[in-house]
Design a protein that fits this description.
hydrolase activity, alpha-L-rhamnosidase, Jelly Rolls, Alpha_rhamnosid, Rhamnosid_concanavalin, Bac_rhamnosid_C, seven-stranded antiparallel β-sheet, globular, 14 helices, alpha+beta
């Protein structure tokens, strides 16, 4: 069986290219079978046989498709002539539908339109619409649309699609996504109405600090183009222009941070209001792009776990899980009743802990219409919460409350399970932290007045993210925004999209995302195209740092975040870390320069590969000479600096490297196995211990429960990853620092180590075409399993140790993948191909 996919998108989603790359996986292949050719066929159209064995993002085999083209495609694999009798070709794959978007500016005839007087900053969400009449229903109808602000579109009385908070958040001045929907079934002969509600969203709502609104413009606007095709071959286009109208809506206020206010006594039907004209407003069509990754949607519904009564007597709903999304209520009450929903991640002294929200009000208010049963939920906001306080109702039934989980609708690809329930809960916390923060951009946190795409957070977390979910399109699109926001001198802003425009765009570990994130995408997905697209950005960033370091190669200038939120830092000094910022900065300069050299070789820039490889060697030598003593001591002598130096090969002398490993072990033992690293050191500390030959200490540190440790939060009831090791103090009070989030995935980067060392599953070649299976069995663990749905198909491992130390190891490998299997207790690896493989080995007992 062959599974086919085009680019990184979901089937049927509009493509931003007329030459989409194709990928496929092979399931249930017969042992010994291999293909050296593939045939791609357009249903009711041409086919082409291509010689080749690769099945990941292969070039489009036909002439490029024009805008608006729709077709179905299938593939089969084999060798020889497929028409010859007895040739060994697979059956055809299931067909996949492709839809090409509007590729040229001239494809757009519609204009951006905005209400003339409605839709002011505090006026609520306007409805922009038009009426039209059809003599007959079309055989095909496609609605293309986007907005300044966020929108929810309707055709007649039907909501269009499942996406929410569209068009999402991009570098709006340079890149604005549009969406396309097949609306053929929603149209009817006679009168029709098409339109959309417009909300403030990221375009005009509050961002970062109180009062910082209208970051991209002060007027909401809609761009919509409805294209109709009829049975007689005629076409009609209905696009936004000054003939459209605007009217109010039930949404009286909306803001991503502060919430929403809605009067349900007001109608959603635009014809029940007096309407006003709209006017055309400027809008650069060259910005318009189709999305690469999936949209934000409701991805899960969770029932309430329990109803609590606060210390002040209010009703609080506990959903049992810190999540991101909406509270949905089914209510029965008199007209004019006002229901208020406030959100928080944790309780403190029996009440919602609101201080971590800073200025964000995170409050939704509804005035009821008084009908028999009303469903309350917002449209143009989202909240991070586990608890919701609900006031205004005489009574509330637990079955009438649920949480709708929002996030980019990413496909789950990675799993890990162990014999330790606490480690399983930790891993689940990482998953939930990612689900909540991968909401159109990779945000740092989803609850307070921030929710920004901090580059440092995603830089450290990207390998974990790429394993857990298919981020190929999501992060590729975000990287295009990064390149669009990059400064002319190569500086990379600390957040993408960039709304901190006056901040120096050069900080180690944060701005280095320009190089590290595309490198991780290539490792996971073998996406040569992402390196090609991002190469100029990657190179510009390394050149920017080279200009700051000069001939000595040491990065000692400018402000740095350093090892952000080191556990020794005081509550209001998150940058006050043990690690010398210059040591961190220079280490990252060596790391990203090395990755740039590898990228240059991959995309065919041979001279750059040689040049940057030599530069990386020179930076590493300068680091070694300046910051490493002959006895292996690294300047500032803390866990983070040793971890970086060991993992990134920054100590040349073997004896000094061994001594550095011993010193790191001493520091860990001296800290009683507790973590002493911030955002920068945490992702590599366990790897460094393994490189130092102390995997036992890595296991011991991971399973430590005293503060600071990963399992401290688990013991305190955490269901996501915290921003601080001590976001909640042992007495149940909230850390007084301003940086106190209970859903902040950066420290969850440890899951990457768990996948590779506990599950024993790691990539050894781009796209996981080669894998290393090498579980490091330690601590009290008796079994573990890991699974990853790679671009070649599912790969999985499972091991179990008995009370005598005997280990049984199982490995499943898909077609096209080779595995290097290190059986516990065996000195050399075993090389295997596709199929299920069973091994027996031994491991030391704890």
């Amino acid at each position: 069986m062959v599974g086919l996919r085009a680019e990184q998108g979901e089937e049927g989603v509009v493509l931003d290219t007329g030459a989409p790359r194709l990928s496929w996986t092979v399931a249930d292949a017969v042992a010994g079978w291999a293909y050296d050719s593939y045939e791609v066929q357009v249903l009711d159209g041409p086919s082409r046989v291509v010689r080749g064995t690769d099945g990941v993002l292969v070039p489009w085999p036909f002439e490029p498709l024009p805008s608006r083209e729709r077709l179905c495609l299938r593939v089969r694999l084999g060798s020889g002539d497929p028409d010859e009798e007895g040739s060994a070709w697979t059956p055809w794959s299931e067909p996949v539908s492709l839809v090409v978007g509007l590729l040229e500016e001239t494809d757009w005839s519609a204009e951006f339109v905005s209400p003339v007087t409605l839709g002011g900053l505090d006026d609520g969400a306007p409805h922009v619409f038009t009426d039209f009449t059809l003599e007959s229903a079309p055989v095909r109808a496609t609605l293309y649309l986007t907005s300044h602000g966020v929108y929810e579109a309707y055709l007649n009385d039907d909501r269009i699609g499942r996406d929410v908070l569209t068009p999402g958040w991009t570098a709006y001045e340079r890149r604005l996504r549009y969406q396309a929907h097949d609306v053929t079934g929603l149209l009817r002969p006679g009168a029709n109405t098409v339109g959309a509600l417009l909300g403030n969203g990221w375009y005009r709502g509050q961002l970062v600090w109180p009062g910082n609104r209208s970051s991209y413009g002060d007027r909401l606007a809609l761009l919509a183009q409805l294209e109709l095709e009829f049975a007689d071959g005629t076409r009609r286009v209905i696009g936004t222009d000054p003939t459209w109208r605007a009217c109010p809506s039930p949404i009286l206020f909306d803001d991503l941070y502060d919430g929403e206010r809605r009067d349900l006594r007001r109608s959603m039907r635009p014809h029940e209001y007096a309407s006003e004209p709209v006017e055309a407003v400027p809008g650069d069509m060259s910005r318009l792009v189709a999305r690469r990754g999936p949209a934000v949607r409701v991805i899960e519904r969770r029932p309430a776990l329990s109803l609590l009564t606060s210390a002040a007597g209010a009703t609080i709903v506990d959903f049992g899980q810190n999540l991101v999304g909406w509270v949905e209520l089914t209510v029965r009450a008199a007209a004019g009743t006002e229901v208020t929903v406030r959100h928080a991640e944790v309780l403190e002294n029996g009440e919602l802990a609101l201080r971590p929200l800073r200025s964000a009000k995170a409050t939704c208010r509804y005035v009821l219409a008084g009908v028999a049963e009303e469903v309350l939920r917002p449209t143009f906001t989202f909240n991070g919460f586990r608890y919701a306080e609900i006031t205004g109702l005489e009574s509330l039934r637990i079955e009438d409350v649920s949480a709708l989980v929002l996030g980019s609708d990413l496909r789950r690809t990675g799993w890990l399970e162990t014999s330790d329930p606490d480690l399983n809960r930790l891993h689940e916390n990482v998953v939930w932290g990612m689900r909540g923060n991968f909401l159109d951009v990779p945000t740092d946190c989803p609850q307070r007045d921030e929710r920004l795409g901090w580059t440092g957070d995603i830089q450290v977390f990207a390998p974990t993210a790429n394993f857990l979910f298919d981020t190929s399109g999501f992060l590729a699109g975000w990287l295009e925004d990064l390149a669009a926001e990059q400064k002319p001198d190569g500086g990379v802003p600390h957040i993408i999209p960039d709304v901190l425009r006056d901040v120096d765009p050069a900080a180690a570990a944060w701005s280095d995302a320009a190089v590290i994130v595309p490198s991780t995408l290539y490792t996971t997905y073998a996406d040569h195209g992402v390196l090609v697209r991002q190469y100029a950005s990657m190179r510009a960033w390394v050149e920017k740092v080279r200009s700051l370091t000069g001939p000595g190669h040491l990065w000692t200038t400018g402000p740095q975040f350093g090892d952000w939120l080191d556990p020794t830092a005081p509550p209001d000094r998150p940058d006050a870390a043990q690690a010398d910022p210059a040591v961190i900065a220079t280490a990252y300069h060596a790391r990203t320069t090395r990755l740039l050299a590898l990228a240059a070789a991959t995309v065919g820039h041979g001279e750059d590969a040689t040049r940057y490889g030599a530069l990386a060697d020179a930076i590493a030598a300068a680091f070694d000479a300046e910051y490493v003593d002959p006895d292996g001591r690294v300047r500032s002598d803390c866990q983070t600096v040793y971890a970086l130096a060991l993992c990134w090969d920054l100590i040349a002398d073997e004896d000094a490297r061994d001594l550095a490993g011993e010193r790191l072990a001493e520091l860990v033992i001296g800290a009683r196995y507790r973590v002493a690293t911030g955002f920068v050191g945490t992702p590599v500390i366990l790897d460094a211990l393994c490189r130092a030959g102390r995997a036992d200490l890595a296991h011991r540190m991971l399973t430590e429960t005293d503060l600071p440790s990963w399992l401290y939060a688990v013991g305190m009831g955490a269901t996501t990853i915290w921003e601080r090791w001590d976001s909640m103090l042992p007495d149940g009070t909230v850390n007084p620092g301003s940086m106190t989030s209970f859903n902040h995935y950066a420290y969850g980067a440890v899951a990457d180590w768990m996948h590779r060392f506990i599950g024993g599953l790691a990539p050894a070649a781009p796209g996981w075409r080669e894998v290393v299976v090498r579980p490091v069995i330690g601590g009290s663990l008796t079994h573990a399993s890991a699974a990853f749905d790679s671009v070649h198909g599912p790969i999985s491992t499972s091991w179990r140790r008995d009370d005598r130390g005997a280990v049984r190891l199982s490995v499943d490998v898909p077609y096209g993948v080779g595995a290097q299997v290190w059986v516990p207790g065996h000195p050399e690896p075993v090389h295997v191909g596709a199929g299920r493989h069973e091994f027996e080995g031994t491991a030391l007992l704890p």
